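pasting for ref
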Amino acid sequence: MKPTDLRGILQYVPQFRDRVFVIAMDGAVVIDENFANLLLDIAVLRSLNIRVVLVHGASAVIQAEAERRNITPSNLDGTGVTDEVTLDLAINTANRLTHEILEGLSANNLRSACQNAISASPVGIIKGVDYQFTGKVERVDVELLNTLLTTGTVPVIPPLGFDSDGRTYRINSDAMAVAVAKAFGAIKLIFITTHDGITVNGEMMHQMIATELETILKGKPDIPPALLSKATHAVKACQQGIPRVHVINGLVDEGLLAEVFSNEGIGTLIYANEYRAIRPAKKSDIRTLRRMTRHAVLNDELLKRSRSDMEKDFGDYYIYEIDHNPVGCIALHSYADQGKGELAFLFVAPFHENLGIGKKLIQFVESRARELGLKELFALSTQAFSYLKNKAGFDEENEDTLPAVRREKYTQSKRRSRILVKTLKG
């Protein structure tokens, strides 16, 4: 099922309805031909009563305009010195981009408005360097912006702020987005860039906890400059109470919906806390479990189970969730009279492999088996036996170690699964 299918979307709606998403778009995304499709994604969010606040950058367009005018800007991204000429470039390009966004939203029958909701002050002089017209956010006029949101209007915020004397300052759009998200208590901050996500030393990071990313940043890793700001501000956002920060490629068709409404996403997710849980399955989960593991069964990785068999023993099954969405599962079948238990139905969705989920599921079942007073676990595997031996501490045995009733089923199946056993200590 495509992540943009209605059924896939609807499962997320209750937790997102009437909550605020702050979407921060790089200027390069706004001028790309895929921007029209991105606006359609935003229209879908609004149709589901998700409140959207848009913040946009301008550095790519400032650079292009500077080259056209044969001007050398003092700074491009709003973090360095902004001289008077660069401020003029920033105001002109930001206004143009804001107009394009308002125009695009209007074309999608969305009400939108740009307002002077950001109070700013100058960065000032740092280590002897006068940053001139570079500013920082002092206050977000949440009351004004909430008035717009309650009337179904999308606020559009350029990377500019104003002080009490009416002076304009250039503000880094990533920092602006964090300030806005914090002021609203947004449930998500989504950075939309021209990159697939955050890469560290050449490796794409799909998911990580903010504290882990903070540690990585302290080690001065190889992160592309355009993404270093996103990574840094993602950590700041999580530290300031934003539970989820996403970094995605805005040039991907339906990318925003795929990121928000699927377990896998398309970019990098940075989260503020451990948001994963293992819970007992319910009868209503059986359909989900069968659908999730269908390809593993077809590939003979897992034993085929009928719906009636799973419903009969549904208390043996456990689900690993991310934000209340199943991405892994396991079962513990007890043979209590012999002090043995079978670890079965171990599965992790492909996109979530190599994140330690399988290990957590196995540790959970081991703990549960000890609670039940079991002394030994066994597992039958056609393809995961190396993992169970090398990573989980199982040893290979023969079929004589199986309980008699399980040995009979093993023989009848003709799958010739490897038999692995682990003694439970303490």
